[in-house]
Each structure stands twice: as C-alpha cells, then as structure tokens.
Amino acid sequence: MSWMRGPDRRRLLDELQRFTTRTWRLTLLRGVVVLALGLVILLAPLTSVVAVVALLGALAVVDGVVALVVGLRARGAVGSGWRLAQGVVSILLGLLLMWQPEVLLVSLAALAGVALVVVGVGMAVIAGQTRRMGPATWRWQVWAGVVLALAGAFLLAFPATSVATVAVLVGLAACAAGIVGLVHGVRLRRTAKDLKDLQNH
C-alpha cells in the first residue's frame, strides 16, 4: 500500500477499515457457534439418528444466519454476494433437515454433502476475493473451504454412508471451520484496530 498516495490511499484505508470493523465480531461469533455445535455433534451422547439430523439442521441454520448477516453488513464489499448466497442456501437446507428429519433421513448424506460443498466453495471463493482486505489467515480459509468441499463431495459420491459417519464428518468439518473462523475473527479485530490507528496519524 506504500505506493499509493493521497485520495486513493485514504479511500482504500476507509474501505478496509469499514470492512474489518463491520465483520470481525460476527466472524468471531460464527467461529464460536460453529465450533461449539461441531463439538456437540462429535461428543454428545445423541440417543437417536433423528436427533443427529435435527442437530445438523440447527448447525446449518445458525451458520447460514450468521453468513447472511455478515453479507448484509458488508453489503457492497467484495465477497458479500457469495456470503448472502451461502447464507440463504444453508438456512434452507437447515430448515429442511429440522422440519422433517425422519423423512429426510434416507437422503441425509446427500443433503449434508450439498451443504458442505456450498459452504466450502463459498468460504474458499470469499477468502480469495477478499484477501487484500483481510488478514493473512485468508489462506487458511481457502484450505478449510477446500477440506469442507472435499468432505461434501465424498458424501455425494457415497450417499449410502451411515448416519454416524455423516455426523463425524460434519462434526470434524464444523470444528475445523469454527477454529479458522475464530482465528480469522481475532485477526480481523487486530487489523481493524491497526487501520483505525493508521487513519488517526
């Protein structure tokens, strides 16, 4: 950024500061919630497969809502369109799973696969598009997105996968995405503070 001068530099700093300030809290919150739900899926003594399906639906809804809010708050910024699309798809899939878990049990692997692919591709694309606006953790976001998408592709390729295996895969994927979200949120907060200090000088 040192090569930029005058209004261009100021405009870029303003854009970066707005982006990081608007999104770091929700990014951090999303990481906490997704990590917590991932741990619940992996560790909780779920008594029925229907409970597993409903919990996966709750994970998708929560993640989708946060993605939607982040997309709306960063409206007009690079990557906001992908966040909005990802949020809508995740919410719809989550509500579908929570609404009729017994009926959808037979297609659980396929639905979970679609959700993981959508979230993974969205995460990787958003990270790539916003790399100049966010901290250095964007590479970790890309890799996390790739891992999620590959897990989803596996479930789509093997739709007969057992509910237990689906739960483990989704739980691990959620934990990975949650940890990356936590780290990214902390780095965004630090970046927002640094940019604010830079603007004041």
From TrEMBL:
Keyword Coiled coil listed: no
Keywords annotated in UniProt: Membrane, Transmembrane, Transmembrane helix
Pfam families: DUF308
Membrane spanning residue stretches: 27-44, 50-70, 82-99, 105-128, 140-158, 164-186
Gene Ontology annotations for the cellular component aspect, listed alphabetically: plasma membrane
InterPro entries, alphabetized: Acid_resist_chaperone_HdeD, DUF308_memb
Membrane as UniProt keyword: yes
Descriptive protein name: HdeD family acid-resistance protein
